[in-house]
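Issue 218. Parser rejects a valid record. Input:
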Amino acid sequence: MRKVSIFILLTILVSPIFSENLFLGSEGYYYYHFSDDFSEYTVSTIDDEIPSNKIPVQQLDKNGIKIWKMDNKNEYVMLSANNYFILLNYDKLFTFIKSYDEYWNKESEVVAFYEATSEKKNGSKRYDAYNLLYYSFDPWVSDSISDENEKIIIESQKEFTSFRIVNGYVDLNNPKLFTDYSRVKEVKVYDRNQKLLGTYTIKNDSTIQSFKLPAKTDYIEIEISEIYDGEKFDDIAITVLQCYGK
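Output the parser choked on:
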């Protein structure tokens, strides 16, 4: 198992009261004012409230993965949650925060060990559990040769209260991989004494899905008890699986 840590790309100043669709970007210098349907936005600096000209946002669905095309040119995978969302491509990662104080209180850093019952290899490339820690295009993919349910163990140096998942194989250049590989439909979560903490249903999409644990813990064993079958592969793919919270 490897020791890894979460690093959120945020350098954010103290934020004012936000309107419904006003977000602070991860670079910490600009506010993003999105229209109600997120079809366009304007930008203003922290010090200057005068917004820029309206910039179009084209929303696409590619094989179940939500894609945003910004300014009619740059495409990003759009990963959304309640109070924030992430736009991700191979060059840049933008995190948009609706309420900085609330986000940071819930998204505190976790240092953790990851281990999975199996990890797929493809030549020199390894789809191991380490990949689950980051928002990237390198998922964990199972390589099971038995009928046993796949499991992922996460052990932290400090307690956490929640976990989040981005289901499936999410790839901007090849969205078909999302349905080619199997996805997670249900997980059972256990503590280090094999006590069941809860059973959680995972949606069959690429959004950021967050789940509350019944109590603070520094260890969980996640058993994949049910899946959405892949159209091409039996192997299960997960793009992100993180523990967080104070």
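Fixed in the parser; the record now loads. The first strand starts at residue 2 and ends at 5.
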